[in-house]
């Protein structure tokens, strides 16, 4: 515990995460005991200390890091961001830890995250999460059910990542993922998270190109976001893969056509048949019967001085029209 910032830290014994020496020290203490330990220098302490200092400041301990381990980030930034820790990296020294053991928990008293579980534990947890998700779906708690399915998928993918691609175990784990992914997508459809469905079904169908339910759910998502071409393509793929679903596909395509037709006429009525707001056309006719006009941006807006103005026409027998004061005076003098 850090008494200065009143920050409690948790350590899961047995994982030897980063500061292995801390597990050794804490397992030798009693609850409520405060002890001081003198330890040899450990190169990881500056990195661990940096993360704890960021937490004390209310920041993310991984803030500013690239997608690599803490040591890898030092090669990019050449600094921990704290001068005293940089100095400790340059000149290693023995460390003194003053630790207080506040509580010891039972192994089953907390929710175990995936990185804490062994392979067998993860595989045993998957059907439990699947059943919990199904129960939540029956209660129409789709958001909570989706989180259960997603957690189960992540557990299986973690186990699968340790297998050789193409091996029997790798393929079997991939098949176990399919129903969980489909259930997750169904929850997202119910929650109208259509682009999330499209993203997940794309990944699923890249690996399992004969998954009928995957095509159907992706088609429903495309139809919901007006992607008519993609929706028709996926519906037709469903009918090609399973002929017994042809009637269902026919109904879905018919409903899609009706929805697209309604959308077309709504947009036509909204955008094509209505003039721009607050606009009208000003027309004027000259003596020769020609019409001129301009559209004003706002009702009541006066014409700009740059707009061409219709001029009155003065025409004599056999004479071209003349305008302007100079031409009128010349015509009067010719008559006199």
UniProtKB/TrEMBL annotation:
Residues 315-326 have a biased composition (Low complexity). InterPro entries: AIP/AIPL1/TTC9 (IPR039663), PPIase_AIP (IPR056277), PPIase_dom_sf (IPR046357), TPR-like_helical_dom_sf (IPR011990). It comes from the Eukaryota. It is found in: Cytoplasm. GO terms for molecular function: peptidyl-prolyl cis-trans isomerase activity. One of its GO terms (cellular component) is cytoplasm. Keywords: Cytoplasm, Repeat, TPR repeat. Residues 296-336 are annotated as: Disordered. Its main location: cytoplasm. Residues 9-102 form the AIP/AIPL N-terminal FKBP-type PPIase domain. This is Aryl hydrocarbon receptor interacting protein like 2. It comes from Echeneis naucrates (Live sharksucker).
């Amino acid at each position: 515990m850090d008494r200065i910032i009143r920050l409690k830290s948790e350590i899961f014994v047995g994982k030897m995460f980063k500061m292995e020496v801390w597990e050794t020290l804490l397992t030798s203490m009693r609850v409520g005991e405060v002890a001081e330990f003198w330890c040899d220098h450990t190169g990881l302490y500056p990195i661990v200390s940096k993360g704890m200092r960021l937490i004390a400041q209310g920041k993310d301990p991984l803030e500013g890091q690239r997608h690599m381990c803490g040591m890898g980030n030092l090669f990019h930034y050449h600094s921990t961001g704290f001068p005293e820790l940089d100095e400790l990296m340059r000149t290693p020294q023995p460390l003194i830890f003053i630790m207080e053991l506040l509580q010891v928990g039972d192994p089953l008293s907390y929710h175990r995250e995936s990185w804490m579980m062994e392979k067998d534990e993860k595989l045993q947890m998957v059907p439990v999460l699947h059943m919990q998700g199904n129960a939540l779906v029956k209660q129409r708690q789709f958001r909570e059910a989706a989180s259960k399915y997603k957690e189960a998928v992540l557990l299986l993918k973690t186990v699968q990542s340790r297998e050789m691609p193409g091996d029997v175990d790798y393929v079997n784990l991939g098949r176990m993922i399919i129903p969980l992914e489909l259930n997750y997508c169904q929850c997202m459809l119910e929650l109208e998270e259509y682009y999330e469905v499209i993203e997940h079904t794309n990944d699923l169908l890249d690996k399992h190109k004969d998954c009928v339910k995957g095509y159907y759910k992706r088609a429903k998502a495309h139809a919901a976001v007006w992607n008519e071409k993609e929706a028709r393509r996926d519906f037709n793929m469903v009918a090609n893969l399973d002929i017994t679903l042809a009637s269902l596909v026919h109904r879905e395509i018919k409903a899609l056509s009706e929805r697209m037709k309604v959308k077309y006429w709504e947009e036509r009525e909204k955008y094509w048949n209505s003039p721009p707001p607050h606009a009208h056309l000003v027309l004027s006719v000259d003596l020769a019967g020609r019409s001129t006009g301009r559209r004003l941006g706002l009702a009541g807006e006066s014409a700009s001085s740059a707009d061409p103005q219709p001029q009155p026409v003065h025409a004599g027998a056999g004479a071209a029209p003349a305008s302007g004061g100079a031409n009128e005076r010349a015509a009067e003098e010719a008559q006199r």
